[in-house]
C-alpha cells in the first residue's frame, strides 16, 4: 500500500467523519428548528387569536365612540337650544321688567289721583254733612208747613171728589140714552143728533169697553166710539166702573164706528175689564 493510498484513505475517513458530524449537527439543528417552528406557530396562532380579539374590542370601542359622539352632538344641540331659550327668556324678562316698572309708575300716579279724589270726597262729605245739619234744623219748620199743605190738599181733594161725583152722574146719564136722557129732575140731558155730529170733539163722549186683549205685552181695549164720535188717534179716554175710576187709555187706531186703545195707566189694584165705560172727560 502506497503512501498516497494511505493518505486518500485517511482523507476519506476524515471526510466521512466530518460528514457524519455535519449530518449529526444538521439533524440536531433540524429538530430544534422544528420545535422552534412549532413553538413559533403556536405563538402565531395565539397572536392571531389575540389580534382578532383586539380587533373585535377595537370594533366595539369604535361603535361606542360613534354612539358617544352622536350623544355628544345631541347634547350639544340641546345645549344650543337651551342657550337660545335662555336668551329669549332674558329678552322676555327684560320686557316684563319694563312693563312692571311702567305699571308701578302708573300705580303711583293712580295712587296720587286716588288720594286727591279721596280728599275731594272727604271735602264733599264735610260740606254735605254741614248741609244735612242745616236741613235738620229746618225740619221742624218744613214739617209744620207740610202739615198745613196736607190739610189744604185734603180740602181740595174733598172738593174735587164732590165735583167728580156730579160729573160721573152726568156721564152715567149720557152713557145710558135709553133712560130718555133725563136726570133725576126730569131735565133732558141727551144732546140732539145734530149736536153730536157737529160738536162731538168738543163735548163729552161716552161709551163702553166691548173687548179686552193683550198684544205685544200691552193691554188693548176696543170700544164702539169712532171717528163719527170725534175720536182720533191719540185721543185720551178715561175708564170707569160704577162710580170708581179704573185707568186711562190712549187711542191707537180708529174706524168710523169703533176704536182700539192701549191702556196707559191703571189705578193700583184695578184692571180694565169688558163692560167698563169710557169717557173723554176724566176725574
Decide which structural class fits the backbone. alpha+beta
Helical segment tally? 2
Radius of gyration from the CA trace? 67 Å
Summarize the main sheet.
6 strands, antiparallel, barrel
CA distance, first residue to last residue: 201 Å
How large a portion of the residues is in β-strands, by DSSP E? 15-25%
- Count of extended strands: 6
Strand adjacency order, main sheet: 1-2-5-4-3-6
Residues in helix, %: 55-70%
Overall morphology: rod-shaped
What integer is the average pLDDT? 79
Instruction: List low-confidence stretches.
Output: 179-202
Count of the separate structural domains = 2
One letter per element, helices H and strands E, the order comes to HHEEEEEE
Search tags:
single chain; 283 residues; alpha+beta; Elongation Factor Tu (Ef-tu), domain 3; 2 domains; six-stranded antiparallel barrel; 2 helices; rod-shaped
Overview in brief:
It contains 2 helices and 6 strands. It is an alpha+beta fold and 283 residues long. The protein folds into 2 domains: 1-137; 205-279, Elongation Factor Tu (Ef-tu), domain 3.
Amino acid at each position: 500500500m502506497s503512501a498516497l493510498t494511505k493518505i486518500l484513505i485517511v482523507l476519506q475517513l476524515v471526510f466521512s467523519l466530518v460528514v457524519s458530524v455535519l449530518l449529526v449537527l444538521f439533524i440536531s439543528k433540524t429538530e430544534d428548528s422544528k420545535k422552534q417552528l412549532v413553538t413559533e406557530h403556536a405563538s402565531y396562532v395565539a397572536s392571531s387569536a389575540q389580534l382578532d380579539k383586539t380587533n373585535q374590542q377595537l370594533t366595539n370601542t369604535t361603535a361606542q365612540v360613534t354612539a358617544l359622539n352622536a350623544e355628544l352632538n345631541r347634547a350639544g344641540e340641546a345645549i344650543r337650544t337651551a342657550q337660545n331659550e335662555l336668551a329669549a327668556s332674558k329678552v322676555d324678562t327684560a320686557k316684563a321688567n319694563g312693563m312692571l316698572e311702567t305699571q308701578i309708575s302708573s300705580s303711583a300716579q293712580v295712587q296720587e289721583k286716588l288720594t286727591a279724589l279721596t280728599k275731594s270726597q272727604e271735602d264733599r262729605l264735610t260740606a254735605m254733612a254741614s248741609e244735612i245739619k242745616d236741613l235738620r234744623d229746618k225740619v221742624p219748620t218744613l214739617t209744620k208747613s207740610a202739615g198745613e199743605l196736607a190739610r189744604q190738599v185734603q180740602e181740595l181733594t174733598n172738593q174735587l171728589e164732590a165735583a167728580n161725583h156730579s160729573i160721573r152722574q152726568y156721564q152715567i146719564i149720557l152713557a145710558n140714552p135709553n133712560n130718555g136722557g133725563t136726570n133725576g129732575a126730569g131735565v133732558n140731558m141727551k144732546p140732539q143728533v145734530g149736536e153730536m155730529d157737529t160738536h162731538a170733539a168738543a163735548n163729552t163722549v161716552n161709551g163702553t169697553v166691548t173687548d179686552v186683549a193683550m198684544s205685544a205685552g200691552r193691554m188693548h181695549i176696543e170700544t164702539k166710539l169712532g171717528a163719527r164720535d170725534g175720536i182720533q188717534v191719540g185721543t185720551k179716554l178715561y175708564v170707569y166702573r160704577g162710580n170708581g175710576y179704573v185707568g186711562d187709555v190712549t187711542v191707537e187706531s180708529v174706524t168710523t164706528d169703533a176704536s182700539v186703545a192701549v191702556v196707559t195707566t191703571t189705578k193700583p189694584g184695578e184692571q180694565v175689564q169688558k163692560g167698563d165705560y169710557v169717557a173723554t172727560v176724566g176725574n
